[in-house]
Each structure stands twice: as structure tokens, then as C-alpha cells.
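pipeline: protein-struct stage 2 | run 1193 | Nickel-transporting ATPase
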Amino acid sequence: MSDTVTPLLSATALSKEFRTGRKEVFTAVEGVSFDVHRRQTLGIVGESGSGKSTTARMIARLIDPTSGSIEFQGEEITQRSGAALRDFRSGVQVVFQDPYSSLNPRHTVEEVVSAPLRYQKRNVAGGYRRMVKAAMERVGLNPDHSGRYPRQFSGGQAQRIGIARALIVEPKLVICDEAVSALDVSVQAQVLELLVDLQRERDISYVFIAHDLAVVRQIAHKVAVMQKGRIVEQGPRDEIFDDPQHEYTKTLLSAVPSIDPRWDAGRRT
């Protein structure tokens, strides 16, 4: 089967429960299923508390699902641990929302970006410095600044450090968990352009988590809409945006700003 037919990642009936007391259980995600194909971006949207980030952390195996299945490149990964889990993480990396809190402030950029290489115990001829500088240069950072600390960079630059860290192990899938929501609009556009360019160059797939539908429309090929831990609608981007079927999706879209007042009036109607 071709790459466009066989998903890179498949999530089937994923659920996650958290125990909040001796008998109380909170269901954060329930019965979520979706596919992510090679060289494509799946946008997962919804308001705060809809289960987007919990879903992202499950497919990255940062937390374990309560039930359900995750397949990556055709192999079940929900039960992996130890070296097998480390191998999986060489193919899947995460870019987090707040670049400063996700980058160790006590480590230099060189140490931060090379961390996945050390975690995966990769031996690199001549050390990691050459690879770190190449990754920094590709994301638009000055490689001569690899000895600086994250707080010495702007928010947009710090997010580029996070992207460089994700790229250093050449992953197949990058999960962007609200990766541009903390940035101002002009910097958002630059980071989105970088992500799109990297996808074309390296055949990367993305799971792009966001509450901002205007941002998702710029980058996603497919969209899944989450509400209260469930996917209520999913499909190709243009179908979701141009002809939404679920009332919740329509409500989300009605809140997206438009520069065309006629379109805004039509949506409100």
C-alpha cells in the first residue's frame, strides 16, 4: 500500500481517566480515533479543557492511555517500555506551548538541543556540536549562540530552539501542542512558515494542537474538533471550515475573526 493510504500513526478508541479522589474518576478523553498520514498535518481544535493536550500526550507516550490503541508505522506502541519506548520516541517528538518552561534554564542551547541525542544514547562522530549548530541554522538561529541560555532569547527564538531540539533526531512525526499560541501574530506567521517548509523538506507529519482555528486553517490538511473529551467532527480542512456539520464546530467558527464583514454577517446568520 502507498504512503498516502497507510497511516503513519493511528489512534483507535483512546480514552484517559484520572482519579480525583478515592472513588471519583474524571474522564478527560473518551473514545478518540484518528489517523495521521505521512507528510500531512492533522489539526486538533477545541476550547480549553476539551482534551486536546491529553490526547497529544497519549500519542507521544508521555502519559499512558486508560484504554485504546496507538499504532505507529504499523506497530502497536501502547505497551512499549524501556529501549522499545526509546526507539519509538526517536520517531516522535513534541514542541510545547511555553518555550521557556519546556527548556531547561540551567542548560545552554547546545545542551538543550542535544538532549534527545543523549537520551537515545546516540553516538555521533565528533560529538553533538556540529549537529546542534546545523539544526540551529536551519530554524533561523545563529549557530554561534549555542553557548547562550534560553532566557537570553526572545519568545519566538526560544520556540525555534524547541523546534531544533525536536528535529535533531530526524523524527517522522512532530506533535505541536499549542506551539504558537504564546507568540504574537507576526512571530506566529514566521514559525508556521518554518514548520511548513520543514514538512516539505523532510517529509514530516504534524499533529497540530490549537484553540485558534485561524491558525489551524493555515497549516492543517485535516481537522478534528474536540469537545468534552470526544471528537465531534473530523475531515478535510476545507470541508470542516466551509461546511461544518456539528453545532459545536459552527460555534467555534463563528468566533474566528474575518476581514470580510459580509462573511461575518453570513456566519452569524
